Amino acid sequence: MSKAKxxxxxxxxxxxxxxxxxxxxxxxxxxxxYSEIAELFEKFDSxxxxxxxxxxxxxxxxxxxxxxxxxxxxxTLDSKKGRTRLxxxxxxxxxxxxxxxxxxxxxMIQISTPTLTKVALIIDVLIxxxxxxxxxYADAMTLVKTAxxxxxxxxxxxxLFMPKPDGLEFEFAPGQAATAQTVPxxxxxxxxxxxxxxxxxxxxxxxxxxxxxxxxxxLPAQARPHFKVRMQLISSExxxxx
Length: 242
What we know:
This protein is of the alpha+beta class. 19% of the residues lie in helices and 36% in strands. The protein contains 5 helices and 15 strands. It has helices at 34-45, 49-52, 100-105, 137-155, 205-210; strands spanning 6-10, 23-33, 55-63, 74-79, 82-85, 108-115, 119-127, 134-136, 167-171, 179-183, 190-192, 198-202, 213-216, 222-226, 231-235. The chain has a 4-stranded antiparallel sheet. It has a 4-stranded antiparallel sheet with strand order 8-13-10-11. It is elongated and about 60 Å long. The model is unreliable at 9-25 (pLDDT under 50).
C-alpha cells in the first residue's frame, strides 16, 4: 500500500502560487486515496493516550485560494461497496469513515468542483476544555503545545517548515461580542472577539509564570491552537493541476 504523498503550502503564499481556474459546470477528478487520509488519523491515534485525551482530530477540505465554499466541493468514496458521498459540513469538515475493510481496499476518493481549483486537506485539531468559563492559563497552553506537536508529527519532513502555534483560539458565533480576561488582574490582560467571532489568547512567558485564571464572558463553540498561517496538504493528484 503506497504511502501518502503530500505537498505542503502556507495560505500566506497562495497568492504567488499561480493556481489555474477554469469555469465549467463541474470538474470531476480523482482527489486522493483513502489511505492518504486514513494514515493521518492513524498517526494521531499513535500519540500517547494521555496526550490526545483532550484533543479531537478532524480533517477539512478547502480551496487553496478560498474561492470555493464547502457547498461547492463534492467528495465521493468510490469503493467496492458502491459510491458513498462524504458530505462536508458548513466549515468543510469531512465525515471520514474509519473502517478496516476500506483501509485494505484503499479506494479512490473522487472530487467534483465547479472550477478547476486545487483543493487542499487541512488538519484541524480541536481542544476539549471543560464546559466552564474559567480555567488556568498554564493548563490551556499546555494543551495548545501538545496539539501543535501532534500536528507537526503529521507533517513529517515538512514539520521543518510548519509554524508553531502562537496561542489558543476560541470560536464564537460571527459577530458575537465576547471577552477573556485574567483574574486576578496581575498582570492584567483582556482579549476581545473580532468580527468573525474569533478570540485569541497568545502564548506568553510572563503569563505562564503568573498562571492566572482566565475568565470568559461566555462559553465558546470551539477551541483550537492558533496559527498565523494555515498549513495545507496537497495530494499527489491535486499537485498535477496546473
